[in-house]
Amino acid sequence: MSLSTDESGWPLVSINLGSDFGRETVEEYILYWEKLLERKVPFGLLMLQQGERSERPPRDSAKQYMDWCKAHKDEIARLCVGIAVVMGNAKLLALYKPVTALSTKRMYGCPGGAFSSQEEAARWLEPLLMKKGEGSRK
Questions:
Q1: What residues are paired with 41 via a beta bridge?
Q2: CB 3.0 to 4.6 Å from 2: which of 25, 59, 60, 98, for a disulfide?
Q3: Calpha distance 122→135 (Å, rounded)
Q4: Cβ atoms within 10 A of the Cβ of 122, count?
Q5: Cα gap 16→19, rounded to integer Å
Q6: CA trace torsion 37, 66, 89, 55 (10° rounding)
Q7: For 57, phi and psi rounded to 5 degrees?
Q8: What is the pLDDT of residues 74-99, one digit of tens each?
Q9: What is the pTM of this model?
Q10: How far is the C-alpha of 64 from the C-alpha of 124, rounded, in Å?
């Protein structure tokens, strides 16, 4: 398995895509998204990207993932309160931080942000989870 997940802080979920973002990782990532969405319970996603460079999956895998996201965007927007991307590389963070919110909203339909630490990312997600929890009780 190329990616690792941690649900010990549910509904805050952590996922580490690892350094090899190839076809196998993309397929595992889609399966994990499906598992999260099947629960029908709001969650926040803390995505750990620890690579030194922005590695892209093979073109066909990227298309597969983009097509899947388009087909599930409404469901993702309804259940995922936000996606916080943690980037250990300061240069990548500086590059992606300004565009992460817009690109995440466009691709997934939920808020997004880029952060330098897991703690900072979790602090950003916590109020979104509480807000979604209050809204689902009404």
A1: none
A2: 25
A3: 20
A4: 18
A5: 9
A6: 130
A7: -70, 165
A8: 999 999 999 999 998 888 899 989 99
A9: 0.89
A10: 30
